[in-house]
Structure formats: structure tokens, C-alpha cells
Amino acid sequence: GGKKLKTKSGTVEIEGSGMGGLEDGTATARCPKKTKAVSGGFDTEIDDDLMGTSAILHIGSRRVGGRKWNATGINAVTPDGDLTAFAYCRKQKANAKSKTTEVEGTGGAGEPGDSTVSAKCEKGDTALSGGADGQDPDLDAPGTTAILPYESRKQGDRKWSASAINIGDTEGDLLGQVVCYGGKELKTKQKTGEVDASATTSSTGDIVARCSKKQRVVSGGFSSEDPIDPSTGALGLVYSSHKQGNRKWTISALSTGEDHDFTAFAYCEKKK
Question: What confidence tens digit (pLDDT) does each residue in 51-65 have?
Fold first, then answer.
């Protein structure tokens, strides 16, 4: 295992829809000089006065350059809301690789597009963390693109997998990213939980994956079992995914219209 991770964060306020259309924004967390962003996460503001709706929909969370972690979101409601990016930093050689796929739009009716992409480390390297980015939302109708990642997680030793739906009309790109290093494979801990909602309600909940006592959480991920039901418009979306303390990775999720299952993933290393 490596040394303890230092947490850095950056927050941006995204204007509400108010008079006009939807707004998007990107928050950036930056690691200190001589350290690298080995992993990262995001958190968005929830306003429970709005029937528990999440103000900010998650669009992307990934490393940019060596020291920065970006989080991008769309504000889908009227009030302004905050989006925070977290970078988890230490001295460590770690390089990012990415792969992109196209996600079809709804074509103005019916099913949203749904795509998965995996980025893979070279042989001999191990996946340390990763991210997903529904790049370049275009929220000006007509021809909107709104790609919402519903899964971002490690798969096997070397891969990071990203899945997203596109609830906009027009196709757009989903980027999957893996951050790789030459060390040992991380152990995976996962926890699945249900966030209940009826046809008339929405609600939010937290799910926590926890590393064992002699381990440290290095990175984490999330998965939503059923992000959207086109027939009812019921949503199951993750709006927060980040480290908590030394051993926990916490995700927060929103259910509307029906109950949804979500899984939190913690990727753990032995403490030295």
C-alpha cells in the first residue's frame, strides 16, 4: 500500500433553470505540487424542499492532467445549486487512459440511448481508479444532448467500466477513464442498497461500502440498477460518490416514481 491520501476539493455554483433553459457547470479540485490525483469523486447539493429532487444531475467525474479531478453536472431545477469535485492526492506514479463511445439520443421520442465503454491499463499495470464523462452536454433545444452516467466502476484487475444513458434527443460521446499504476491489485468491497419511492414520491439515500480494518480506501465507484423507466419517467440516479474517512466510500442516490437499487464500490489497499 501507499501513503495516506490527502483530500482536496473545489466547488462551483450552477445557476438554476429560472427563466431560461438548463445550465451546466464543472468543478475542479487540484492536488498540491509534487503529488498526483490518484482518484477522485463528486458531490452535489440536494434541496429537499423540492420533493427531494436532486438539483444537480451528474454528468462526469474524472482526472484531468496529473493533478486535477473534474466533476461536471446539470442543474435540472429552478434554484441555484453547488457541485463539488474531490481529488485524493499523494506522491505516486499514476497515468490515465481513456476510451470513448457514442450514446444515441432519444430521437425526440421513446427510449433514451444506453452505452457502456471500458478503458484498460497496459499489461503489468493495475487499475487504481477511474471515471466517466458524458462529454459536452448541449442543453439548447432542439437537438439536446444529456448523457448521465449510471455506472462507473472497476472491472477485473486492469479495466474501468463506464455506462450512461442519453436523455437528450441527439447522440453524444461517453468517455470512460482508467487511472493505472504499477502496484498490486486493489481489493473490492461492495454494498447494495434500495432507495424507496412510490409513484407519487421521490426520496434520497446513502449507501456505504467499507474496507476492512487493516485496509485503506483508495478509490470507489457506483452503479444504478435501473437508471430510467421510459414508460413512467421514473429515475434512479447517483448524485454523489466520494471517500469518507480512511475506509469508506459513500454514494448518494435519488429514486423517483419507484424503488431503485444502487451499489457502492470501495477499492482497498493494505495499510503499510
Answer: 445 568 899 999 999
